[in-house]
């Protein structure tokens, strides 16, 4: 068991001559709520894209639970236990809510079934389908989406789409959950609700969560520790209070 | 026992109505045939409808569910027809039972087409939209041209390869049974977890990848499977005639299959079967009624009919009527939320139908999104 669940070492990426990220060293302990903040264009989402294999890092490595995942494909990284949500919601819009979650359950070993067993409707097919549906319902209940399970995902209100995306990511049974601006576009009530849910996920599923957020109130109320990025480099890290009161950080945000 | 219980639990009549209709149709046709009500031309038409429906259903897997445009379906059919019939010609000397030979030939033709589908599937992983369409189109033409340039001893070259023409009754029974089996396999696949994964890839490939779905695997699988069924249809085609000629498999035919899929509603299996039969019927009707000089305008009349059907399919007035009649209209259901039923395994609700107008704008959902992401990647 490694000391840190997620550890990045000198992680960096450049697009042509542009160094988008340089020397990022994140250390996230198990069961921690970790925040990633920074002004627009600081490279927060790029960190997520590196950690989920959308981009391959040009320098540095990262480890999940002591296992190196640098350069692996998106699917592989998901199998190893990193799941994410997206800044601009990416649900399967033409599918019902419950089916979205069932897609998330696709790779769970207890719901394994070969395509040929499905095509011939062998006993295994019915067995896994029924159990998978039950599991999906269970997850939807946690997120208060049970009543909407038969609606199309695109017909859900915005806040619920965000929640569904988190539910879907959680269905892949990750060790580390990456939330990209979960509270973006939410009203204060919905944000409050979301904070409760994020805490609940952490406690009930024993989950480690790394989240990007602009809403500093949300971050400082929720995160144990955070890293502030600016122009692709680390500006400050530490507990929420320390990091946000750092003079460099204040300068980056307000100028001066 | 648990198996039977599970089947009972998940069995819904409306989910399986296609099979009942097909089997009932088969029974009616067999009885009609016994009384000599079916002429030769009519059995020929039924066979043609049958294999066209197989082609449309299998192409629907690729176009409707995987969301990739393939224009090489006639190529797979061509390979299946040639190799399957070649095999059959050889086997008639070995096995006496003609039906057994046909079944074996269908398996061989299907397998050959599967391998070819796998080969086309490989570039499909890298290409998208129009580019993939061009590759598949070229591939279909390549296969056709290979058979065009064979010697007369093997595949007959431009003259075509002679096959044993099957007797009408036997062949239409086999064709309809094959159609039922193909439909069963396709629908079972789509309604399973794998079908969910496939539609997820169509809906949002990036999200599907982040859910850990093996996009490569599923794309290859669907391509190979669709090609396999096309190959089977090709063998049936080959046995409905006395010669297989390569000029039947031009890209025009691929596009005709695509028209069947689009007309029937992308992602609707039942629609594919109905529209395939309809198009075959219209074609036959035009061929019989427009003789002499009028035969020249056959294609034009056909095109006009298609345009009218597409326009009327999208007419707001007709849509309203359809919504009123439709049992599965979601808007109706939402009016009284207490009627939302607990769908244990309600597979009917696999939401796969892309509305026609979305298809007509030729901007398949999420394509631009995916492209912008790859563009970002290209920058580095």
For the structure shown, list the relevant keywords.
heterodimer, A: 256 residues, alpha/beta, 6-stranded mixed sheet, 5-stranded antiparallel sheet, B: 380 residues, mainly alpha, ABC transporter involved in vitamin B12 uptake, BtuC, 2 strands, globular
Describe this structure in words.
The complex is a heterodimer of chains A (256) and B (380). With 256 residues, chain A is of the alpha/beta class. Chain A has a domain at 94-173. Chain A has helices spanning 44-51, 74-80, 97-104, 115-119, 123-142, 158-171, 188-204, 216-222, 240-245, 247-254; strands at residues 6-15, 18-24, 27-28, 33-37, 59-64, 67-68, 82-84, 176-180, 208-212, 225-230, 233-239. Chain A has a 6-stranded mixed β-sheet with strand order 7-8-9-4-10-11, with helices on both faces. In chain A, strands 1, 2, 3, 5 and 6 form a 5-stranded antiparallel β-sheet that branches. In chain A, strand 5 (59-64) and strand 6 (67-68) form a beta hairpin. In chain A, helix 3 packs across helix 5 (123-142) and helix 3 (97-104) packs parallel to helix 6 (158-171). The longest helix of chain A is centred in the middle third of the chain and has 20 residues, at 123-142. Chain B is mainly alpha-helical and 380 residues long. Chain B has one domain (18-326, 344-379): ABC transporter involved in vitamin B12 uptake, BtuC (Orthogonal Bundle). Chain B has 17 helices and 2 strands. Chain B has helices spanning 2-10, 17-34, 40-66, 73-91, 98-124, 129-148, 168-190, 193-203, 205-210, 215-240, 251-264, 269-289, 298-314, 316-325, 330-335, 356-360, 367-379, and strands at 161-162, 243-244. Chain B has a two-stranded antiparallel ribbon with strand order 1-2. Chain B is globular and about 55 Å long. The N and C termini of chain B lie far apart (58 Å). The model of chain B is unreliable at 329-380 (pLDDT under 50). The chains are: A alpha/beta (256), B mainly alpha (380). Chains A and B meet through strand 1, helix 2, helix 3, helix 4 and helix 5 of A and helix 1, helix 7, helix 8, helix 9 and helix 17 of B.
